[in-house]
């Protein structure tokens, strides 16, 4: 997409100094800008870059007074950082919602309804009796099974797989390769050493404003629903097992795994590669360090935890500090023993 | 799918008390039942729910005597829990095998044979000279390469990718996004710091009754086969490297990784996020705790192990218990040293 | 593919002893060879297998003198191991580049150019204004977005998803299910506990000779590029976050995760399941043990590190050795204390 500097200044309610007929098509950091880019200057520390930047336009504050010549056009606004963020968001919206209409071939089952403003990429598949809201973007090679419900303005990137009976809210984003509703991992051991599959007949329920990362997997419940509450943000390659519930506005970084029937509170923050055992609860507001192993429930709200098995963060850090000195500690103990032996041998005690 | 209560009672060899013409379409826990659901009561602890449940039907035992009025129809059987499990399994079978026939467009290569009773979802791809058994369900956007063999009754969910030359048995299940037969990770370091790719010309061999989780990856062997024996159950996002062999009826939880040429025994149980180094063997019946790092072979059968580097479970738990008290232990050592110094300084020893 | 032994001998500049009209179609280890296979004998230790192998042909050295009868045809060359490796590579090349032409249906957007010698598998998708070089192999169900650039001889296996604006060099390999260019995980916390999405407008830049494993995910930069330098080899299920840079010829094993804006040096080797925190640098030539947690930058080049938090490998091993003896160490400290108490109680000090 290309915009003139004049159009952008108008959007940001700013004034242009320079050639406002030039077009820009990308956003860039001021030190990396090339012709066709627009950048911003909000921090004096970076001022020297404005005199050498190759960007076509730079957003600056009202109080900016150039000390040398500047080749870029300037867009003068009240708060350049806010204006740039606004521009980022507008640009994202345009990118997200520029796709519209139907690319052939697609497959749509019987009894299925797709709302207005949709994008259906080529080779996308929607099963039977599925209800899809307005402005939903279904990228190429997406699979949506039977009896699925999806709210308005949800973005589903290429190759996402959504099993039958899944329920998804409004304004969600699913990144490429995510799998929603695969069978929970449930097998009953038999006497002959084999396992019998426990049927997984529940579904996945995802509320509004949820974001799911690339190649993340969320299993359906055995019965009932695996539940992702509103505002939850999940990174790439995360595993959410059957019957888990994630409380609203909780954030989970990449490669974390949450085992079956665990209940995670609201407003938690999980680092990457965390593991959570099944059938436990984690209190609201818990902050979990990367690679933590949560082996028991966490009852106190708003604590920071780390380590495996999990401890309060400060206890963990104190133990780890000694762990690093263990060879020294062992030596000290050996010397104490030797010393005491020597003293006894010297007969000082008798 | 909808069934009358009469049909279900007939299937379960039970008697109906109430309106047997009502239809039900879902299975639910008694406390969560809504109209159209069928539930069960097997444990007296839950009896109070039967008087308030909104489910249309409840399966109960012959000895159940209602204490109040019940709105649901009752299906009276010998063992309500077993009957409900039977229903779950029937329902799963119907779900799994209800899909049949060909959805256009699909791609089928030359010399390929697909047995009767198959489902071929739209945008699925089967390469050349591939042999597929009876009742195999190939969901949309599945990729099956050239010279692949797949047995009867195998279920392949949406977007699974099976590379050329893979051999798969009967009654297997592959969840969405699983990748079978990608190149083993083999690169030979060269003198200039670059790496030369070691060709990976083997395949993957998967026996009967194997289940593979969503987005799990299994690499082909360098030469010969990466082998998954009968009855193995693998969860989501697991990595199985080239030339690995997994013994029969072994269960592996999510996000575990097994490095090249490791040999895992029969009837092992792996927790999630376990790592296994390459070129080692793990004995039959080993139980591996979540997040364990198996850094050496395990020779004794039927042991429980944990930690990194791996120890017997009890040794690990004892070490971990002290780890949590390390700051205290360090303090004790410091005090012992101080005490001894003081005693020496006081001249008691001379 | 089938070749006569004569054709192979010609390729390897070798002489045949036996029937050179037989055809072979697979490569195998000498102890596993079946009719139709070709194998090799380079190490005397394996000589006894040549008298029993079922392989149709065996590559041997000029100095090999049979002690018994051999049923296989022999191809006599100067260096049998090198010849076999040459054969492996030729075979791989044939496999990789045998696919050509267009399988219908495919989707190609407007303004897109695809070079000669391409393979476009059925149900593959290429967006608008994308430039694809010569001999690029696009397997079925691949998604390539808008404004993407891909160099010559790059292999893209089934179901790979490449987001818009990605730039990819020559001779790269992408295994099935890999996702390139998904949004970085960036969310700004708001006062009401919700998160606002930070637009991710950068891209991914992948240089020449890079290999990316199955179901691996590489996020785009917030602004600018996430960069994978030439010769980097990345295994399956790896997570590379936004704005990361990986130096040339670095090798990363499966299930490793690298957080946002981390900079990894050249010629590093990462074991599996490693975690790297964001905004740090790892020096050139660092060797990282499996399951390490890199919680701080590593400045010294060519060191070996391990543990969590990360230490130099030898320090880590020394601490771990004591960790395993912690219960014993604790007991020693308790005994020292008791001993000292007893001595004091006995009044020897006064």
UniProtKB/TrEMBL annotation, chains A, B, C:
EC annotation? 2.3.1.191
GO BP terms: lipid A biosynthetic process
Kindly state which reaction or reactions the protein catalyses: a UDP-3-O-[(3R)-3-hydroxyacyl]-alpha-D-glucosamine + a (3R)-hydroxyacyl-[ACP] = a UDP-2-N,3-O-bis[(3R)-3-hydroxyacyl]-alpha-D-glucosamine + holo-[ACP] + H(+)
- All copies of the UDP-3-O-[3-hydroxymyristoyl] glucosamine N-acyltransferase non-repeat region domain together span 22-89
Which superkingdom heads the taxonomic lineage of this protein's source?
Bacteria
Molecular-function GO terms, alphabetical: N-acyltransferase activity; UDP-3-O-[(3R)-3-hydroxyacyl]-glucosamine N-acyltransferase activity
Q: Which Pfam families does the annotation name?
A: Hexapep, Hexapep_2, LpxD
* Sorted UniProt keywords: Acyltransferase, Lipid A biosynthesis, Lipid biosynthesis, Lipid metabolism, Repeat, Transferase
Provide the assembly information.
Answer: Homotrimer.
Q: Would you identify the family this protein belongs to, as annotated?
A: Belongs to the transferase hexapeptide repeat family. LpxD subfamily.
- Listed name of the protein: UDP-3-O-acylglucosamine N-acyltransferase
Gene encoding this polypeptide? lpxD
